Amino acid sequence: MEIHSHLAAVLLPVVFLTTVTAQTIGTTTPEVHPVLQTQTCTLVGGCKTKLTKLVTDSLAHPIHSVTDPSKSCQPLDPALCPDQATCAQNCVIEGIQSYESIGVLTSGTSLKLREYLLDGTQYKKVQPRVYLLAEDDLNYEPLRLLNSELSFDVDVSALGCGMNGALYLSEMDMSGSRNSNLNPAGAQYGTGYCDTQCFKTPAFINGLANINGSGSCCNEMDIWEANSRSTAYTPHTCSGVGSFLCSGNECDSGVGVCDKPGCSLNTFGLGAPGFYGRGRVEHRLDSTRPFTVVTQFWTADNTTSGDLIEIRRLYVQDGSVFPSTAETTNGAVNNIPGGWDGSITEEYCAVRNPASDFTRLGGLKGMGQSLARGMVLIFSIWNSDGDFMSWLDGQASGNGPCNATEGDPATIVKTQPDTSVTFSNIRWGDIGSTFKVDGPSNGSTPAPGTGTGVAAAVATNGVVGGDVLERSVTIWAIVGLVTVWMGMFLS
Ligand SMILES: *[C@@H]1O[C@H](CO)[C@@H](O)[C@H](O)[C@H]1NC(C)=O
Ligand SMILES: *[C@@H]1O[C@H](CO)[C@@H](O)[C@H](O)[C@H]1NC(C)=O
Ligand SMILES: *[C@@H]1O[C@H](CO)[C@@H](O)[C@H](O)[C@H]1NC(C)=O
Ligand SMILES: *[C@@H]1O[C@H](CO)[C@@H](O)[C@H](O)[C@H]1NC(C)=O
Fold first, then answer.
1. Which residue CA neighbors atom 4 of ligand 3 most closely?
2. In terms of DSSP bridges, do strands 420-430 and 35-42 run parallel, antiparallel, or are they unpaired?
3. Comparing C-alpha atoms, which of 294, 297, 329 is closest to residue 310?
4. What is the reported pTM?
5. CATH code of 295's domain
């Protein structure tokens, strides 16, 4: 048990040198983190593989009474947890030995998340959310993406209406707010989660009992929230640096410390339903087959200390690279002086979300500062009993084709219990360094019918989506190479 001895090395001093033993690490079940290989890339040096790992949120771990393991410490039991110090003495957090048992499957560079698992004859909801740990297996892996890009391949074909397979960043503390007295477990057990929703409900925040109902807030960059029907990416800002607590109406929308709606870009919602969806004939980007998603964070002066001015999205499918569409029927967006190029800019946010908190709480510049400080990469799959995810894909919100009931989790578990998302080939680094295409392309739609995932010979007149791409894409011509899909010859 390599993990066990590692833990012991870290924790023994805590256990023996202090009298407060804390939300101590239990000894019944070890924590065994799945490895998910990722890569960091530079233009000059190419890509280097990292043996990064995954941990699920601390609250998804068993947390129980020291003396009576059948008694859970969630939700907080006033008898066990009258205050933080007593709670820490009375409760232990146990490990998770099999991440497959919570719907997390990894292999090499690939991560599959499942919403449901068969439990006897019934499906149970597992809905995992996992965080990227550094190679040290103790702390989160800091991603600093200002003036850089992140790319990954995704398969959303098994995500229907109401599902959300998400990949995003939160400005969590890299140690998981580890604290030798009250939270010795830290990132290794998935503590320290925060986001712009500032949820007031968690039993523990940063591993400490949340006695007074605080919310846990921090900047959040939603790189990818999607199913096969609709997709969005959204920066969200907060007034504070790092992770911090809110109380009362500080945690609320409109008056609070974080921007909950964010400055979102959803191509369907902007009036381009033909851009993304199921089927090559009907859509430019066919969500029934894998593709590569590239997100670039451009600064005003092309340095890592400049102001973030643009968040640009590119896609790669069938050997062709193309930007998120600039086609829109939205009058305000169409009227942006100088035109709109299909990306998230201050001008876009100003007209797209006139009432949002985004600008008040820092705007793109604030988002950029958070990206520069470093954020934690998070993967999740989820559906929602409250709103059926209609803000992402529903006719009611105008953001997708799904009707009022299709996204109901009660329907999903009956019609598609094997729903899942697969992320793979996660890379970050210099703009232009994390992806390749097998031939220059002008972004035109290949003829329908080539679509079994085999990269077809693509147009090669060397123009990639006009000036938008000239400045942001580096293309390597790999003549004659036919691959099953992008990621395979990169890995
Ligand atoms: C709630 O408790 C936390 C300690 O976990 C403390 O930092 C915070 O100030 C408290 N909030 C209020 C409003 O008392
Ligand atoms: C929504 O779509 C589903 C699947 O196509 C269909 O069975 C259902 O009747 C529709 N519901 C409504 C309210 O239109
Ligand atoms: C892109 O290439 C295709 C295929 O060769 C061609 O039909 C199309 O006209 C080209 N589009 C542009 C804008 O050059
Ligand atoms: C940043 O780089 C892009 C792409 O190379 C270029 O078009 C742009 O002019 C540069 N901006 C500055 C301020 O140098």
1. 459
2. parallel
3. 297
4. 0.85
5. 2.70.100.10
